[in-house]
Amino acid sequence: MKLRRNSRVTVLAALVLGSGRVIGQNGTEQSLVPLAFQPLPLGSIKPSGWLKDQLTLEANGLAGHERDFYDYVAHSTWLGGTKEYSALREGFPYWFNGLVPLAYAVDDSRLLEQVHSAADYVLDHQQEDGWLGPEKGTERNFWGRTPFCLGLMQLAEVDEQYEGKIVDALWRFSGLMNSMLRDNYTGYHYHDGDQVGKGDEQWGRVRVQDMLITLQWLYETHPTGNLTQLMENMQLLIKGSLNWADWYNGAIYIKEDLNTVPVSVTEPLFPYEHGVNVGQGLKALAVFRRVTKNESLVQNSKDAVDWTFQYHGAASGAILADERLAGLAPFYGTETCTLVETMYSLSYLYQALGEKDYADRCENTAFNALPVQLTPDWWGRQYVAQPNQPYSKNLGATPFWNVNSWGLTYGLETNYPCCTVNHPQGYPKFLSASYVRVGETGLAHALLSPGTVTMDDTTVKCDTTYPFGNTLTYAISANSSFDFHVRVPSWADVSTSSISVGSSKSRLSPDEHTGLHKFSIPAGSTTVTYSIGNPGIVLEKRANDTVAVHRGALVYALAIPSTNTSSLPKAYNTNQEFPSSYAPPESRDWQIFNTSNWNYAIDPSTLQLHGGNETVEGSLQNPIWAPGASPLWMTARACEIEWGMYKGVPDVPPTGEKRRCVGNGTVEVRLEPLGGAKVHLVDLPVVDLSGN
Ligand SMILES: *[C@@H]1O[C@H](CO)[C@@H](O)[C@H](O)[C@H]1NC(C)=O
Ligand SMILES: *[C@@H]1O[C@H](CO)[C@@H](O)[C@H](O)[C@H]1NC(C)=O
Ligand SMILES: *[C@@H]1O[C@H](CO)[C@@H](O)[C@H](O)[C@H]1NC(C)=O
Ligand SMILES: *[C@@H]1O[C@H](CO)[C@@H](O)[C@H](O)[C@H]1NC(C)=O
Ligand SMILES: *[C@@H]1O[C@H](CO)[C@@H](O)[C@H](O)[C@H]1NC(C)=O
Ligand SMILES: *[C@@H]1O[C@H](CO)[C@@H](O)[C@H](O)[C@H]1NC(C)=O
Ligand SMILES: *[C@@H]1O[C@H](CO)[C@@H](O)[C@H](O)[C@H]1NC(C)=O
Ligand SMILES: *[C@@H]1O[C@H](CO)[C@@H](O)[C@H](O)[C@H]1NC(C)=O
Ligand SMILES: *[C@@H]1O[C@H](CO)[C@@H](O)[C@H](O)[C@H]1NC(C)=O
Ligand SMILES: *[C@@H]1O[C@H](CO)[C@@H](O)[C@H](O)[C@H]1NC(C)=O
User: Fold this and answer.
1) PANTHER family given for it (predicted)?
2) Average pLDDT, stretch 447-474?
3) Ligand 6 neighbour 495 (Cβ under 6 A)
4) What are the residues facing 113 on neighbouring strands?
């Protein structure tokens, strides 16, 4: 197999001249607003260290086996089967979008064969008129194409065997799309009597930015078809969309807990409130701006992210939406697929707009919210997780807006299959976004993690235990000098951070907007040591007089001692166990039970870090996101408080006078990085124990 490491770059240099301008067929120029930083083509970055371990677990776990047995992938209508979990027919497309980058990240020949044969099947069955996928007539809805096309885009970048075939298929599809959109938005807007329902229509229209990403890629890197028509498609899709600019508007946006707002207000806005849509939609206005050139969308994008996290966000970088945006109560949930979409959007926003906040937030979600929702072996995922989740079991009741009582448990498809098919994209796309091209020849380490990037004749190999340790060591080999940039996280103490290039050590001076510190690398071999000053424990104030504990890029949660049981996986719609022949034996549904009380309040002044310091070195445990696996943990003094229940889970903790120590005095509690602490409290009530 030949890797096409620099295909995008070559074409860009020839046709886009680094500025996003494309020469139109009629000789005039029609440009897209350029991205602040260019992503590298899939295949340019290979993982190492803990990230490689995680991706390997993913490849050997549920994600890497869905094509073998999982009905909604293996027997999808896209591959000639009959199994779909909804009329959206999105199961196979989601899987494809995540498995293309996963297969290439770990170079797993079994998975490469699976994505290739799946791509071959769908491309070979492209319909006469250009439609991709199995639908005929009024079954046709653009949405299901969207994740599939994102997968095709990635495959075309990495593998030249596929490039021509994919580009040709996408141009044919673009031609059909144009005639459909011109025909009263067929496949996009639905009319009475159409087979696909109203709700299904909304998904295509509110998630359209993800389709535009593929169309923009085609426009810029393979401008071999009718560009006027492709541009028109983008304009029509935006014109016909449910436009996020209408929602991220101070007069409309709901800042309250949505469960306290009348249904008459929330219901018409539901497409903008659904958690997965929000995760995807955070990037929408930055994608639209490339076409419309409307600069006010930069501020709208910032509002989108700021408001989402301020009013509906968890300390871990999760959007609290179960399945509709909620408020800040620590018993609300976040879907696993909302997290992976949030990460993809935030990494896109950093590339599109270059604002450092998006990268900081992407790392937060990637190192905290995402890993806690997967079993250590990657064979089970939660449907939703709570900030304060002392157990993960069938609740009987449900504190969630529209998630059933099994939603907190880990397993194959608890509550609903979307997170089974969509969780795979999380870390593979994080890897793809970890480096970006800056200008013509510069390279930046955008999302910090271990791995090796190759760009042109330059190779940069980064060893690090980050986010556990704070040192990144780069071995660089370059044929000519170039500018290298490292992102300095916003939490870093710049005064104690340093960079050593060869034997010359200097202070950091990160750009205020991008967070990037730039320095020059000579031709030849160079070693760079980047040391991030860690200011220590930082407390984030949360609702109801609680705090979340951060140190560097990690959130530390009170780890609840636990035990677990498992069963055969259950069908999401009946909660009946599948026959044992359905799934591999590793696929189990898990419940996790607390083996101690959990109703603790801590005195934050007693928090102490254990197990390491700024130089966590050597290799981390594998799996790293497992109970007790982190080299770092904390202790604090705590006492039990009277803490009520709400629908089977801990209520918001008592505040003021009602918050009193009860029971046997103070105890020492343990806090671990959230990703490993599957049952946990993140939003911790505080008490003053100095008198005890
Ligand atoms: C186009 O669709 C709208 C509904 O979205 C409908 O009201 C209108 O009649 C349709 N027009 C034609 C020409 O079919
Ligand atoms: C040339 O194509 C662009 C779109 O690529 C279009 O906006 C423009 O109107 C066209 N100009 C002429 C003279 O046809
Ligand atoms: C390209 O698309 C435009 C807009 O749809 C159309 O007017 C034009 O005829 C097309 N050009 C060719 C060569 O097909
Ligand atoms: C630009 O977008 C804003 C919404 O952010 C909208 O109010 C404004 O009308 C748009 N301007 C143009 C020229 O379309
Ligand atoms: C269940 O407990 C075992 C033993 O402690 C542990 O190895 C395993 O990771 C746990 N499984 C889950 C899903 O938490
Ligand atoms: C870059 O350097 C390597 C090793 O020093 C060499 O093999 C390769 O040919 C060089 N490439 C170019 C384009 O000069
Ligand atoms: C908890 O915090 C939420 C969000 O700020 C607030 O709406 C609620 O009233 C608080 N409840 C208590 C008991 O403090
Ligand atoms: C687990 O938590 C529940 C309350 O949710 C509590 O009643 C129970 O005693 C705890 N289990 C143990 C073993 O402490
Ligand atoms: C940090 O850990 C390293 C390696 O374990 C050790 O050499 C060093 O002395 C420690 N520094 C501090 C300040 O504890
Ligand atoms: C207090 O400690 C005793 C002895 O360890 C134990 O039996 C008792 O259950 C504890 N009481 C509470 C309220 O935790």
Assistant:
1) PROLINE-TRNA LIGASE (DUF1680)
2) 96
3) no
4) none
Which residue lies with its CA nearest to atom 14 of ligand 1? 184
Question: Which ligand 2 atom sits closest to the C-alpha of 28?
Answer: 1
Fill in the DSSP letter of residue 244: H
Please state, in angstroms and rounded to a whole number, the distance separating the CA atoms of residues 131 and 173: 6
> Does residue 644's CB lie within 6 angstroms of at least one atom of ligand 10?
no
Which residue shows structure tokens 């009530």? 685
Q: What pLDDT, on a 0 to 100 scale, did the predictor assign at position 191? A: 64
Average pLDDT, the chain: 94
- The number of the ligand 10 atom at minimal distance from the alpha carbon of 640 is 14
Ligand 6: which residue has its CA nearest to atom 6? Answer: 479
Which atom of ligand 5 is closest in space to residue 678's alpha carbon? Answer: 14
The phi, psi pair for 444, rounded to 5°, reads -130, 140
Start-to-end CA distance of the chain, whole Å, equals 67
Whether the Cβ atoms of residue 20 and residue 35 lie closer than 8 Å to each other: yes
Residues in the chain: 692
Query: In which residue are the tokens 């959109």 written?
Result: 181
Q: What is the mean pLDDT of residues 688-692?
A: 88
**Ligand 3 center to residue 577 CA distance, Å?**
55
Question: Is the shortest distance between the CB of 235 and ligand 9 below 6 Å?
Answer: no
Q: Identify the band that residue 361 occupies on the pLDDT scale cut at 50, 70 and 90.
A: very high
Rounded (5°) CA angle 76-79-82: 40
Say whether pLDDT at 68 is over 60. Answer: yes
pTM above 0.90, yes or no: yes
Peptide bond into 467 cis (omega under 30): yes
- Whether 12 has a pLDDT exceeding 70, the answer reads no
- Give the whole-angstrom CA distance, residue 329 versus residue 345: 24
pLDDT at 6 (0 to 100) = 39
Residue type at position 378: W
User: Is 228 close to ligand 2, i.e. is its CB under 6 Å away?
Assistant: yes
CA of 165 to the centre of ligand 3 (A): 22
Q: What are the tens digits of pLDDT across the range 194-206? A: 555 556 668 999 9
CA proximity to 134, closest of 150, 148, 152: 148
Q: Does residue 297's CB lie within 6 angstroms of at least one atom of ligand 4? A: yes
Q: Is 26 exposed, middle or buried (0-12, 13-18, 19+ CB in 10 A)?
A: exposed
Across the range 29-43, mean pLDDT stands at 93
pLDDT score at 616: 74
24 lines ligand 3 (CB under 6 A): no
Mean pLDDT of all residues in 671-682: 98
Residue 664 CB–ligand 10 contact under 6 Å = yes
Q: In whole angstroms, what is the distance from residue 601 CA to residue 544 CA?
A: 12
Q: What's the 594 CA to ligand 8 centre distance in angstroms?
A: 6
pLDDT at residue 658 above 90? yes
When pLDDT is averaged across residues 518-547 and rounded to a whole number, the result is 97
Residues with CB under 6 A from ligand 5: 375-376, 380, 410, 564, 590, 592, 626, 678
Residue 190 has pLDDT above 80, yes or no: no
Confidence class for position 663, pLDDT limits 50, 70, 90: confident
- What separation in Å is there between the alpha carbon of 595 and the centre of ligand 8? 7
pLDDT at 54: 98
Helix, strand and coil percent figures for the chain, each rounded to 5: 35, 25, 40
